[in-house]
Amino acid sequence: MDGSRQRLKDKKKIVVKIGSSSLHHPETGKLDLRKMEVLVRQLCDLKNRGKDVILVSSGAIMVGKNALGIKKRLEDVNEKQACASVGQARLMSIYQKLFSEYNQICSQVLLTKNTMLDDLNRYNAVKTFRELLEFGVVPIVNENDTIATYEIDSMSVFGDNDRLSAVVAALVNADLLILMSDIDGLYTDDPHQTDDAVFIDCVEHLDRELMQMGKSSTGSSVGTGGMATKLSAADIAISSGCDMVIANGNDFHNIGRICDGEKVGTLFLADRKDEFYVLNKLEHMV
After folding, report:
1. Mind listing the pLDDT tens digit for each residue in 80-135?
2. Is 261 annotated as a binding residue?
């Protein structure tokens, strides 16, 4: 293992992002409870190792849609908000049951773009996260889809929580962000479309050429975040001094492997910039 991977073992504050595509059965669109059990066990084990953990989880709209028996593709914003309201409650109920199996307390934190841009709201969010982590709680973060329309528009501001997780990592001064995706990591091209795509193990500098590799499409019919939003998340995370890894969410054991320093996924090395960089990036997301 090289030094960059080896140092992941020493990370103390870790944000893990799970997209909708990593939580459901593709045959039915319903939650994959066995995978969720593995996810929660991995996170609780990190807690037992003395690490602070924050989970950023998508899936509210998907869960609500299934609960309400809606089969059609959702187009209306109000329908999506109604599904999010039902689904968020159900999703949190499942998470609470799973975390309680390991005597771990979790909490719900719902954020919007405005939370980040307003100075007072952002300050209060930082204090809330700090207190929760000091109490040993695992905060579970999601977009507040019920009252906000930015995040559920077809051109999502946060991109299935990719960029939201990076902003959360910046807010709490996390030193590692793990994005669980439907792909093994970053490639020179879309591996779903071409056999010539070459896997990129480590990104030391995120330049314009790499940013242009991102595609607006995604391999999932459930998630909204393609590689473009993941690279945007990487830009925010590494600029705040946080290493980031994109890895395959088909196996949540990858979370533990990454934190053990194993060569899993694509590693983006921290490249800290000015403290206002993240806020400027978020403000210009449209």
Report:
1. 999 999 999 999 999 999 999 999 999 999 998 778 778 899 899 999 999 999 99
2. no
**DSSP code at position 182:** S
Pairwise CA distance, residues 98 & 37, whole Å:
6
- Counting every residue, how long is the chain? 286
Instruction: Report how far residue 265's alpha carbon sits from residue 74's, in angstroms, rounded to the nearest whole number.
Output: 32
d(Cα 122, Cα 115) in Å, to the nearest integer? 6
The larger pLDDT score, comparing residue 226 to residue 155, is at 226
pLDDT in tens, 255-279: 999 999 999 999 999 988 876 766 6
Q: Determine if the pTM surpasses 0.85.
A: yes
Q: Is residue 224 a known part of a binding site?
A: yes
Asked whether 132 and 107 are in contact (CB, 8 A), the reply is yes
The verdict on whether residue 194 carries a ligand-binding annotation is no
* Domains of the chain (ranges, CATH numbers): 3-283 (3.40.1160.10)
- DSSP-derived letter for residue 78 is H
User: Distance between CA 175 and CA 261 in Å, rounded?
Assistant: 14
Q: Tell whether residue 69 is among the known ligand binding residues.
A: no
CB 85 within 8 A of CB 188: no
